[in-house]
Each structure stands twice: as structure tokens, then as C-alpha cells.
Amino acid sequence: MTRARRRSAFPVAALLLAAASVLSAQAPAASGKLGKIDFPTSGSPDAQAHFLTGALLLHSFEFEDAAAAFRQAQEVEPGFAMAYWGEAMTYNHPLWAEQDTDAARKALAKLAATREARRAKAPTPREKMYLDAVEALYAESGGDKPARDRAYEAAMERLAAAFPDDLDAASFYALSILGACEGKRDTAQYMKAAAIVEEVFAKNPEHPGAAHYLIHCYDDPVHAPLGMRAARAYAQIAPAATHALHMPSHIFLASGMWPEVVSSNEASWKASADRADRLKLGPDAHSFHALSWLEYGYLQQGRYADARKTLALMEKDAAAGASSGRATAGFTAMRAAYVVETRQWKSDAAALKVPSDGMHRDLDLFVTGMAAAQNGDRAGAEKALAEMSPAEDAAKGAPGGSAHMHGGGAAMSYASGRASADTVLLRLLDAQILFSKGQRDRAIAAAKAAAAAEDGLNYEFGPPDVVKPAHELLGEMLLAAGKPADARKEFDAALARYPGRALSLLGLARAASKAGDAAAAKDVYARLSEVWSHADADLPDLAEVRREAAVKMAGSR
Q: Mind listing the pLDDT tens digit for each residue in 499-508?
């Protein structure tokens, strides 16, 4: 990467005191800081102003504030059909596998008791089609969620075709395509959606939905270069939206751009804390999602002290009684990432007790077991393994929590997929225990099985759900077993899935060196030295990396 690496201007200790004061003092935020859209309706001018604010917020997934804006439009004009459409839309979170059908149906019922009566209140054919679409999304006779999502997608396709100049219809149609994937990354469908919003973005470079949805379409290492323009633009388009400040880091993380990941999530976390303070909300309103990504960015940069402070913030919020389940999920994921990335198996973080429920229990047990195995406590490691969910149960896809927590407000349901990650974690812990017993061949075989399973997981980019990537652990085992050439292949595989990961780079450099490829080793050491350019002075392995990188730099002169 040619772009200069630099330490973020916002140290974590000052997160609650400085950085990106981007929200207005009123809620919802001023529409001028949320982007620009042309979304005409039949509403009165006063009602339309609130409606536009709600639509802008909706495009940035600021669902609670969007609902408040739509309700304000309803108060100004009680018969304004599109205001009820908007509120109902805020209860569908298509990319997070969350949908509160009861709340949405109640919102629509405020307009009129039946679908036919509500449609009659929409005065134009276009607005009737918007209502038809949201009715399909929440129809009581529409079948299960996947069936209703497909019906909604079809309705939005008709709407976008009927009104080709309606950029919001096109944007929501693209989002409906992603939502109908039901949490599975279907590349063909994602690229279909991207083609639609690319046209919207070309016509209106300040459209928040276009920039936002493009990032979601492209947030994997293969397609991330296509999303870089949207990532660079989105936070500038909608700086008053907490989620807009975070979203560019999807592309940055998929590209291993750690300073940018950190800066984005420092700003997003700060914005969510500011909003919570301004509206006198509790810790559930904090963006634990941004905080977990911030911690991960610090960890990759070797800034373990800053990462520990973010974990302390999460611990504080969890202890303050955050009730949605997101705080528990955040605490579990962040404690796991900290212990695994720092390899501080005897640290105070490793000793933290997480109030894990069934959705997050296996992740906590995995870290507990890994720490025990690394500390020579074989009995403790085997106890943790025995308490994890059996692989055959996990493979059935039982619902579980996600480490990817979003936004404020109550979580309505959690996406399945955690169970599959748990299956990989169980196999990895089994492999680590076997390795600690000296059964290296069996351990490597188990780790290979885990790596194959991880390769088959759904691919949504972010800090890895498998908190210790299987190819990385397999590479470390192969390197310790005196097989550097094989280890090198595994570290390459880990970096293909998770670009720029510090521990994978470290393993790759060591494997190349032991395999006799001095030139390649020096190149990787130089890359890692750049990643760790602002690392803690006492970071393990830092001296080795800087020494080897210095040799590379001297040889290039």
C-alpha cells in the first residue's frame, strides 16, 4: 500500500472528549448533513421536510431516528400515507437479518385498518406502489420471512421499472436484492445490486443510499477496490449519521488499511456516544459494532494498550446493564479478539468473566480453552472443549448471536451463522489440545478440517467470526512442526481471506525465512513493520520485525 500509514489523531483515552463532532444538537440530525435526495411525495411542505429527513436517515440505517422523523411527519399530517410507509420501513433491517413485523404492522395500522384502506389513502400511482411493496414485506398471509423478502424485492423491481427517474426506488430495490439473500453472500446478486446503485451514484454523487449500499456490495477483499470510491465519499456525504462514519471501514478492513479502519470507527463510536448523551439514552444506544471494529484495528496496529481501553469501555457498558443482548455479544467478541490477538493468555483480559448466554457461549469457551491449553492446563482446556456445542448440532444451523452488532436500540433477532463458526472453533480447540499433547499429526489433521470448514462459511467482511482464523493456526502448527513450506501456503490462504492481519504476516515472514526464501521474508517483514509503525514499544516480536525490515531497507539502497 502506497498511502502513508499514520497514527490516528484520536487516542482512545480521548474518545469521549474529542473527534469528529459531527452531530447537531437536535435529533433527528439536520438533513444537510445526511446527504441529498430528491424524493417527492404528496405531503404538505412541513410534513415533507420531516419525511425527507426520515428517508435520509433510513438510507444510512439510522433506524430509530428515522422512525422519529417519520412520526413527526405523521403528526403534522395524519393522513400522509408515505410517512407510515417510512416508519414501517424502519423495522426492517435487511442486512442484519432483523425484522420486527409486529411493530411494522402496528405502524401501518395507524394509517388505516386494512391494506385496501391504506392504499386508498395514497393519492398517486407511485405512492400506491410504495405502499404495495411495504405491504408485501409485512403481509400476514405472505409466508415466512424469506418469502416476504422475495415478494418485496419483486414489488420494488416493478416500482423501479415504472419510475426509472426515482433514484430512491432504485436504491431501495438494490437493497431489497441484498436482503433477499437472507444473509448469504450471493456474489451474482450482490453484483446485480451494485450495478443498480452504481447508476444512482453516478447521477447523484451525494445520495447516501447509493454510497452505503455500494460499500455493502463490495465489502470483500476481491471486490473492495471497486468500493473504495464510495468508501471515501460516504462519511463526507452523511457525517451526521453514526453508521455512515463506520461504513467506510468495511472497505478499508477488507483492504488491510488499518489507520483508516481506526479513524472511521473512532469517529463512529464517538458519534454514537454523543448521540446517547444528547438524547439521554442508556448504553444500548452506543455503537458496540464500531467499538469492536475499533479494537480490532488497534490490535492489528500493535496498539494493545489502546485496544485494552476499548475493551474496558465495552466492559463498563455491559456492567451498566445494557439489556438488548448486544452488550453481551460485544463484550464476548471483544474479549475474545483481545486475548487471541495479543496472545496474553495469562492477562487480566483472559481472566475476565463474560456473562455468556447460549448465543455466545461457544466463543467464550473457545478462548477459555485456548488460554488453558497455552498455559499448560490441559484439563481446563478439555473441560472447555467438552462444554462447547457438539459439531453435529452446530452444523444444523441453530440460531446464534453475531459479533457484528449494529446501531442502537433493541435487537429483534440474530442471524444464524454463529453456529457454523462455532463448529470451526470447536475443531480448532480440539486441534490445539492435540498439539499441546504432542500429537502433532492428529492436531494438524484437525486444523486442516477446521480450515476447510471455515472456507465454506458465509463471507461477510469484518473482524473474523472465527476469532483465530483456521489457516493461521494451521500455519503456526506447521511452522512449529518444521514444515515451513506448507506453513507458508496456509498463511497465504489466511491473508487472502483476511488481508493485512498482523499475526498472519508474522507467520508468513517466519515461514518464508525458514523455507530459505530470504527475499520474500524480508518483503513481508517490511510490510509488517509498516503495519506496526506505531505499535506499543513493548510489543512482542516488534524487535524481530524491525530488525529484519531494517535489513531489507538497507539492502534496497
A: 999 999 999 9
